[in-house]
Design a protein that fits this description.
It is built from six helices and 28 strands. The chain has 409 residues and is mainly beta. The chain has one domain: Neuraminidase, CATH 2.120.10. The longest helix has 13 residues. It starts with a helix and ends in an 11-residue tail after the last helix.
Length: 409
């Protein structure tokens, strides 16, 4: 039986052309400037350097598709942006959010300014949550503009709700905050929690909207696997040492409890912990919090490195990026997790090179962003070619014929 599963999985892995629909693609990024004069001025002063702009995060809300452009190098005019939907352009220009005035870090940022963000999420109460790392020119000569903060916007009014500066004692020398995931219910918007992953210092910062307070959780499962730090992507070889990165929230129960699945970037194992454990502030004072509540789920197998993941309650499936396989994987949480049940649902050596973010919208569509980050970091991007892509597919259609589809198995 195991042999049959193995060979079936192998066939699935080898038979792909791109199944997801390519929604947008860019050779380089540009913006909807207030005027041509503004763009010309920004280019002349180095305030806009197209080669230094890379999309890193994506999120959809109604007729807006948010995309993030971290200020990793100089010349990024706006870090938090959106595209109006529907949009039939192949390479649409980006609109700064919440406005051009509040996207600039010069001469100084406002409360609503996002200096540099990687990934964002919209909650069930139509609020956009942003983790602002607050640093400009990170890859070359880092300059702290503002302290790291959680920034929340009301999307119905397009207004800032709150900017919560993370306490200094919850940040470490190697802190790197790549992801934010929101635990909310439309029936109880006040009692919302945000989970911010610290991949550099192996922790999760938990923020309570109701208490307007945060605390830090440490655990050995947040660390890297020292044997899984090597990556080979698009003939580029490099080593990463990023810990806890991806989070997916399971089914919401009547008491608002749910499982929180998570994994490190430089690892292939998946873990789970009840959300109530992270929401218990007293555990943050423990050197080894709730050890029995943290459990290993399984292992995606060799080359199963993943950045982000998302859970689809309608199919019981967790979708996750597969960095080293140029693809998107899936796992049905009703089955054991191993290298045979964690299967690829799509794979493409061009459209899915370095898939770094994945989101599920309210209509059941999976959105995936790929960006050739390995080439960007080494300044080897070819701007005559398409470098950034956003692809989309219905989640239920994407798993058809795979082990993630309950009808299939």
């Amino acid at each position: 039986m195991i042999r049959l599963i193995f060979f079936a999985a192998l066939l699935l892995h080898q038979s792909f052309s791109l199944r997801m629909h390519e929604k947008f693609s860019w050779k380089y990024l540009d913006y909807n400037w207030p005027s041509l004069e503004h763009r010309t001025f920004a280019l002349s002063r180095g305030l806009y350097q197209p080669e230094n702009n890379i999309i890193l995060g994506v999120e959809r809300w109604k007729n807006m598709l948010f995309v993030t452009v971290p200020r990793w190098r100089l010349g990024v005019p706006s870090s938090l942006n959106f595209i109006e939907l529907p949009n039939w352009e192949k390479s649409p220009r980006l609109n700064p959010y919440p406005s051009w005035e509040e996207s600039s870090i010069l001469p100084y940022p406002t409360e609503a300014t996002i200096v540099s963000t990687y990934r964002v999420q919209v909650d069930k109460c139509d609020r956009l949550w942003v983790i602002d790392n607050g640093v400009d020119n990170l890859l070359d000569q880092p300059k702290s503009i503002v302290p790291p903060a959680i920034v929340i916007f009301d999307l119905n009014r397009h207004q800032l709700i709150r900017r919560f500066v993370l306490p200094q004692n919850q940040l470490k020398n190697d802190t790197f905050l790549p992801n934010i995931v929101i635990d909310s219910s439309k029936y109880n918007c006040e009692d919302t929690h945000a989970y911010v992953t610290d991949a550099g210092s192996f922790g999760i910062i938990v923020y309570s909207f109701k208490k307007n307070k945060s605390w830090r959780i440490q655990h050995s499962f947040f660390h890297i696997d020292p044997t899984a730090g090597g990556f080979s992507i698009a003939d580029t070889y490099f080593t990463w040492r990023d810990g806890v990165f991806g989070i997916a929230l399971g089914h919401l129960r009547s008491d608002f409890s749910r499982d929180l699945f998570f994994h490190s970037l430089s690892a292939t194992k998946e873990f789970v912990v009840p959300n109530k454990v992270l929401q218990n502030e007293s555990l943050a004072m423990s050197t080894d919090p709730a050890h029995g509540e943290f459990r290993i789920v399984g292992d995606r197998g060799p080359g199963g490195h993943s950045a982000t993941e998302v859970f689809d309650k309608n199919t019981d499936v967790i979708f996750f990026t597969q960095l080293a396989k140029d693809g998107i994987g899936c796992w049905n949480i009703q089955t054991p997790l191993n290298e045979y049940t964690a299967v690829l649902v799509d794979q493409d050596p061009i459209a899915l090179i370095m898939p770094v973010d994945i989101k599920l919208d309210d209509d059941g569509y999976i959105w995936v962003l790929s960006n050739r980050m390995a080439h960007f970091i080494k300044k080897q991007m070819n701007f005559a070619d398409y470098n950034f892509r956003i692809v989309v597919a219905k989640a239920s259609e994407l798993i058809k014929g795979t082990f993630c589809d309950v009808i299939y198995y």
